[in-house]
Amino acid sequence: MDAAEAAVDRARDELLAQLTNDLGDGLVESHLVPGDDLWIRVARGAWVETAEFLKTGLGFQYFNFLSAIDWMPSPFGRDMDSQVDIELGHDEASEVDSSLEHGVAGGETRFQVFARVNDIVNGLGVTVKVDIPDDDLSLATWTGVYAGADWHERECWEMYGISFDGHPGLRNIYLPSGFEGNPLRKDYPLLARRLKPWPGIVDVEQMPGDDDEEESGDDS
Amino acid sequence: MTAISDRDQLSYIAAQAADARVNVELETEGMTLNIGPQHPATHGTLRIVAKLDGEQVIAADPVMGYMHRGYEKLTEVRTYPQVTTLINRIDWVGSFANEVPFILAAEKLMEVEAPPRAQWIRTILFEMSRIANIALFLGDMGLQVGAVTPAFFAFRDREHVLNQIEAVTGGRFHPNFDRIGGLKDDLPAGWITETKRAMKKMRNFCDEIEGLLQGNEIFEARTRGIGVIPADIGLGYGLSGANIRASGVDWDTRRDNPCGLVHNELDWKVWTHVDGDSFARFWVRLQEVRESTKMVDQLLDGLPSGPVMAKVPRIIKVPAGEAYVETENPLGVMGYYIVSKGDLVPYRVKIRSASFNNISITPWLLKGVYVPDIITILGSLYFILGDIDR
Question: How many whole angstroms from its chain centre is CA B17?
Answer without folding.
Answer: 55
